[in-house]
Amino acid sequence: MTDLEKELCFIKEELRAGDKGYNMSPELQNVHTALHKLINIVIKITNKEGGVSPPSKSLGKCPDCAVQPGQQHKDYCDIERCSVCGGQTLVCNCNEHDKDFAKWTGIWPGQAEADYLGIDLNQICTYDYIKIFFIKKPFNTEVI
Ligand SMILES: [Zn+2]
Ligand SMILES: [Zn+2]
Fold first, then answer.
1. What is the Å distance from ligand 1's center to 90 Cα?
2. Is it the case that residue 142 has pLDDT exceeding 80?
């Protein structure tokens, strides 16, 4: 718990204790209610900034072969990328393709990388990025 969180908890407890102890006039009651609302908003904002808000997206099944995130694609899935050549496993004939390396993550292959780079998904395939992202064997590529 950060110092700010501790402080917020303390204020909340104080307010709660105050609720019990006083015979409040309607005006004071209103101020008190407003304070409660305010403190809850501050807590919400603090949680967001602290990075504890839940993910805004969830991982889904492979749109083609319907496996769950973390599982190997089924045979003949057209989304699976070949870990040897980086192309679609469906259309290449490479030996030693590693199905574990190419497992479905819940994100379209290359999409997270493309988003990170601020480019279109197709550009992942037009540049040498496939060597870095889809191919298992390390390459001595110059940094793109
Ligand atoms: Zn699949
Ligand atoms: Zn291949």
1. 10
2. no
DSSP 20-71: HH----HHHHHHHHHHHHHHHHHHHHHHHHTT-SPPSS-----TTT-PPTTS
For 49-88, what is each residue's pLDDT tens digit? 665 667 888 999 999 999 999 999 999 999 999 999 999 9
Statement: the pTM of the whole predicted model exceeds 0.90:
no
The pLDDT, as a whole number, for residue 5 is 73
64 in the same domain as 45: no
Q: Say yes or no: 65 and 44 in one domain.
A: no
Q: Which of 69, 75, 87 is nearest to 133 (CA)?
A: 87
Q: End of a domain among 17, 34, 49?
A: 49
Range of the domain at 112: 56-144
Q: Ligand 1 centroid vs 84 CA: distance in angstroms?
A: 17
Distance 13 CA to ligand 2 centre (A): 62
Whether residue 13 sits in one domain with residue 36 = yes
Q: Are residues 34 and 89 in the same domain?
A: no
How many domains is the chain partitioned into structurally?
2
Calculate Rg over the CA atoms of the chain: 26
